[in-house]
Fold:
Amino acid sequence: MLQNRRSFIRGMLAAGAMPLFPGCFSSKSYAANGKVRLAAIGCGAQGWFDLRDLARNADICEVVALCDTDIGAPHTLEALKRFPDLPRFQDFRRMFDAMADEIDAVLVATPDHSHFCAAMHAMRLGKAVYVEKPLAHSFLECELLMKAAAKYGVVTQMGNQGHSGDNFYQYRDYCERGIIKDVVKVVSHMNMQRRWHKWGGKVAGYPKADEMPKTLDWDSWLSSAPAHDFSKDLAYGEWRCWYDYGDGCMGDWGAHIIDTAHRFSLGCDLPSEVKISNLEGLNPFVFPVQDTLTMTFPATKAHGDVTLEWWEGLDNKPELPKGFRYADNKGLFPANNANDGLIDPPLKPGKEIYLADGTVWQGLSHHSTLVRVGAQDEKVPAFEKSHNSHYRNFLLAVKGEEEAKSPFSVAAPLSQVFTLGVIAQRLGRGFKFDPASKRVVGDEEANRLLAGPVPRKGWEDYYRV
Structure:
């Protein structure tokens, strides 16, 4: 059936016919009990964290299927224990072939490179999608997902959980009331140790093949991305190190740190220029050891000229504003074992927002709220605090009772900012960008990277809307 479906898709594309998957394009055909029927694509590691919190909303959510390319591996056992009687799959395409009519919404919590095809397939079937951050692996994939969400009219949410927390409501309310206005610069930083730092930028190629785990479907794990032999240094979290599979530190943390500033102070815009400095460990295969990205957002009717800075690397830290006070970092992300690649840093992941009048607001990542630099003991103005979690917000949006807080119309441009940063990191140089045409100016190598790698054979049809 899977091959027949692929043949059908190719024939429809050749004939210029759309939609690719005819049928219901509403995600509101719930089970008889009125609950959202949820399938999980990725149920270990972050996928288990998401699935567990979605399932806690048992009054409106029913988990109906588990899919993981490595199902049965140790990191998936918690999900299998929690849902022992559900259908299990290794390939999301086979899951949809078997039970598409029994699914209303899908969680996609897989490595960065494999978000796109799973989300696109689900949306074409009219399913609501919750996709982990960053939204996709390339600029083009983000663009196509945004267009597909509009075309198919489904509910969408990116998994930057803080975008439904106090941080979201405070920033929104302060902008609406003029407390935060005339932003001229946003300085963001994430200076924790990353997995690729252990290699010091000295990687000469892809790792040699390891013995394949019996639980793993490596071909499905690769999705549309370039094929390399299985290695423990490519999988199991290490994928984030490699340009072929991950979006690095900014893709991992940017959605938790700069999301509100990008939405409310920058109007979800794209930059006109990307610069890179303080670069160490430039490598064609893995991310740098450190760098600073500086992006220029030209003035619009909604905002003036704004500069966004992103600092990463253990010792690559911005000059902090006068009056800045370090928060107590104890227990931020303590290294529970020597291999998790995280340490408790002296500067927490966060941002400083510089206003034209000289005021600076300081904020941390995820749900953390803002305080005014130099006045941290000052009581901040009130803001809305009555809200649902990011997970419940998504489920209620699927039911038509709320608006999703991080839909693809917001999440895709934000993730495109990350992919532009990745291009500068990969090339080791900056470039000018035209936000109107969404093209790099005068740099064809950078333009090619906007599209990402050529999809592997059998996955090409997903790259059309």
Remarks:
- The chain has two domains: 2-162+457-463, 163-216+250-386+409-451.
- The two ends are 23 Å apart (CA to CA).
- The first helix runs from residue 2 to 14.
- The domain at 2-162+457-463 is CATH 3.40.50.720 (Rossmann fold).
